[in-house]
Amino acid sequence: MTAGFCGLKVVFAGSIGRSVTGGQAWASLQYLLGLEALGADVVYLEDAGDWSVTYRWSEEVETWELDHPAGYVGSSLNDSGFTGSWIYRTSGDSRGLTGDDLEQALREADLLIIRGVPFLSWRPEYDLPARRIFIDVDPGFSQFRYERREPAFVETVDRCEELFTVGQNVGSGRSTVPACGRTWHATRPPVYLPAWPACPQSADLPVTAIMRWRGMKDLRHEGIEYGQKDKEFPAFAAMPLKTGRPFSVALTGGGSAIFESGGWQVIEGWRASGTPDQYRNFIRGSSAEFGVAKNCYVATSSGWFSDRSVCYLSSGRPAILQDSGLADWLPAKHGVAWFRTPEDAVDAVEGVYADLESQSRKARELAEEMFSADKVLPLLLERALAGVGK
Description:
This protein has two domains: about 5-190 and about 370-385, Rossmann fold (3-Layer(aba) Sandwich); about 195-370, Glycogen Phosphorylase B (Rossmann fold, 3-Layer(aba) Sandwich). Helix content is about 35%, strand content about 20%. It is built from 16 helices and 18 strands. It has helices at about 15-20, 20-35, 65-80, 100-110, 140-145, 150-160, 230, 240-245, 255-260, 270-275, 275-285, 295-300, 305-315, 340-355, 355-370, 375-385; strands at about 10-15, 40-45, 55, 60-65, 85-90, 95, 110-115, 130-135, 160-165, 185, 205-210, 220, 225, 245-250, 265-270, 290, 320, 335-340. The strands form four sheets. It has an eight-stranded mixed sheet with strand order 6-5-2-1-7-8-9-10, sandwiched between helices. Strands 15-14-11-16-17-18 form a six-stranded parallel sheet, with helices on both faces. A two-stranded antiparallel sheet has the order 3-4. The longest helix is centred in the N-terminal third of the chain and has 16 residues, at about 20-35. The two termini are about 15 Å apart.
């Protein structure tokens, strides 16, 4: 525990309920558990705007019932050891904390952290905390939306004193992502190591990927159209056939035919990662990660690094990743192997499995050295709270 953050009051805004997936739950839980371990008092906030529409994966239907996403938030937080309070809200209703309880928490908060998704409705009480920060986890797309003056992005970004991004190159001159007249501080996706211990490894386990084929529309910026993983992955579809190794993907959002033709085992995403435990177990059942980035991340050389990859690394699973401009920042010798072309990808897989035991050990060491929440979050908090006596 870091004494400087004991008693710090934080409201953390995420998107666990709206996604209803284990991966998105962990993306927020890494922060929530890490902040608690530093001694902070944390409240989880999720604001769905005027109404809540979520997906019941097993039934393949949408639902407007608040109890569905709110129940998922409650079970994900409780089962994962988060001891703080939470609220899932719309403009007219809420679950968990009451609106009055939330307003009091915001009034007392030293910091409001908004991760990834801007508020669809900026409510007056969100101005109450001493400071506000926005963490961009979709570099390029976030800034393009801001420059297009999409109301949610403009209002959220403009009301935050500090901005952060997992795109390590944003604003550095090494990326074409626009800074939008603001400073974007590079931050790393944290992993709460006690929840992600290294576990036994075997080369017989499959290389795995967890992938959303398409989650949003492509965006055009200054005459260039930027896309998602469906634009990048086809070049690498034949990896199982080229390497002779088993590859498995937990897939959401289409694209299954391309995977199957390349020799992948395809599992419905919600079956492999519907809950935080299922997500963790799927990763632990892998020998390594094979990660393809969104076209936007690669085309802009944003330096994006995934909150999913840190889970693989912490579990002692090497990450074989498409380079989004990070090869110099994070050399391949550290349990990460980079590729740009299909030929690079084959070489990267062969290199990892030539010494899997060492690569697995280095993967865990890298998680401890660079992505552990107890190292990432203090730096984030110090920058976020600069100038307010913390």
